[in-house]
Design brief:
about 130 residues; 7 helices
């Protein structure tokens, strides 16, 4: 898989960190490092988790920055990825994207297309 050919980066990943600004900048850097436009991913992560690495939706059983559904957690584990690791969450979101495009995040499409979302992200990144 092409995504895995890019080595994992370490931006002082500290899963205990909960600052929204830190994880917004981390998300931006994660995708930029891979020469991927970070803008749609920033919108997805803002809408899905609000850049909360510990976000968990008990109704849908989605977890992490990109809200990876529990149906994928065992596949992640087989790949050596840990759902609790924010870098692994984003890496697996790229794998899902390669398979399905942005379909896995279609529930938040309205939020993603909102100008308010773009404004929130800018405020977080500038803050």
């Amino acid at each position: 898989m092409a995504v895995l050919a890019t080595p994992l980066i370490s931006l002082a990943v500290t899963p205990a960190r909960t600052e929204v600004g830190y994880w917004a900048r981390y998300t931006q850097e994660f995708f930029t490092y891979r020469n991927i436009n970070p803008d749609p991913w920033l919108k997805i992560v803002q809408c899905e988790s609000g850049f909360d690495v510990n976000a968990y939706n008990s109704l849908t059983h989605d977890k992490g920055l990109a809200q990876i559904n529990r149906l994928h957690w065992s596949a992640m584990k087989k790949m050596g990825l840990d759902i609790k690791n924010p870098e692994h969450q984003l890496l697996y979101s790229l794998i899902l994207y390669q398979r399905n495009g942005f379909r896995d995040w279609s529930a938040s499409a309205k939020c993603q297309s909102s100008p308010k979302t773009t404004q929130r992200i800018k405020a977080i990144l500038d803050g």
